[in-house]
Design a protein that fits this description.
Keywords: Cobalt, Hydrolase, Metal-binding, Zinc. The protein is an alpha+beta fold and about 400 residues long. It folds into two domains: about 5-195 and about 330-410, Aminopeptidase (3-Layer(aba) Sandwich); about 205-325, Alpha-Beta Plaits (2-Layer Sandwich). The protein has nine helices and 19 strands. It has helices at about 5-25, 40-55, 125-145, 170-175, 230-245, 295-315, 335-350, 365-370, 395-410, and strands spanning about 60, 65, 75, 75-80, 90-95, 115, 120, 150-160, 185-190, 200-205, 205-215, 220, 260-265, 275, 280-290, 315-325, 355-360, 375, 390. A six-stranded mixed beta sheet has the order 1-4-8-5-9-18. Helix 1 (about 5-25) crosses helix 3 (about 125-145), helix 3 (about 125-145) packs across helix 9 (about 395-410) and helix 5 packs antiparallel against helix 6. The two termini are about 15 Å apart. The structure holds zinc ion.
Length: about 400
Amino acid sequence: MEVRERLDRRIAELEPEMVGTLCDLVALPAVSPQDGGLGEGAKAAYLEKKVLDLGLPPCERYDAPDPEAPGGVRPNLVVRVPGTGAGRLWFFSHMDVVPEGDRSLWTQDPFVAQVRDGRVYGRGANDNGQELVASLYALKALRDLDLPPAFEICLAFVADEELGSRYGICHLLDRHPELFSPQDLVLVPDGGNEEGSFIEIAEKTPFWLEVTVEGKQVHGSRPDLGKNACRGANELSVALDRALHRAFPETDPLFEPPVSTFEPTRRLPNVANVNTIPGREVFCFDCRLLPSVHPDAVEGVVREEIRRLEETTGLRVTYRFVQKGDPAPPTDAVAPVVERLSRAVKDVLGKTPRVGGIGGGTCAAFFRVQGIPAAVWAQESDTAHMPEEYTDISHLVHEARVFARMMRDL
Ligand SMILES: [Zn+2]
């Protein structure tokens, strides 16, 4: 029998076990301590044992210190299997999950998985348990069939993705750079669509700005005695909107929309009554920059508009970044990781996926910033972070088949 068929048959046999493992993972919530949870400790301990039970080499552990976590650390695990040829292929999935959200919108306990209608329901089943299990059992299928991978395979199960990856991927990249090489192939299976028809190779840079305008609060009848922060914030918001759009008109057809976006968003409440002139106003912009637009250049335009407002009104303006990313160069559409992934997806799903960019942001950007090409792909329903989150079992199986092909370089 051909290798593909043997792999697919083995993965089909493993399906009940994959579903069982996914259900076990749902029961180990791994909500970040910063979100009021217990972190990834229990899930990591389960996975360390599971990996051994599956006959795979023991996990390497890369703990990130976090005083807020039970035990003081956030665990990151790497399962490493040598290959027959040179090179290394990474699969990054994250162990942490977001909290359940509004409990009344769930018809079940979010942390007790339910299997019905070909789906596994539960928090984290989709994001990112599905891909974690798919990568684990792709490797297990190869092992069961005594098929060595074509290159070294590393499965990484990381912490803290939902809150910025400081204790997860960033910890690995910053504190254990020896783990990576620019020649590595990196797949982050943490985003995709129902058809599995999209490979993400680029992200816009997040540039989230919070601006505070300060004046002098007075009675509504005596504006002459105060300095109206509300008017200043209105003027500045409109001026910023115009200036940013004018200064950065670049387009890039890789993205949808094909431009940098500059959107006024949150406005904090100011005064509670009509007849008080506000002395303080806070507003935000959600900007997402094309990789060719440097965040420092955008900040320059922001500073110039602020200076102008301060000069003409006497108001005081400060700003801070809620998020200011580093520009991440797009992964080449014909990079080896994209090419291999594309081939495997076509083989399993029958269609060549299209490549493109998104508004951001996944942790693939951290690799791209370091010059390591990374691709993001998954076949998944759009249920991450939602109540009644679920995973389609057929997607789970397809992903395992895609990953197994990549591991064997079929
Ligand atoms: Zn995720």
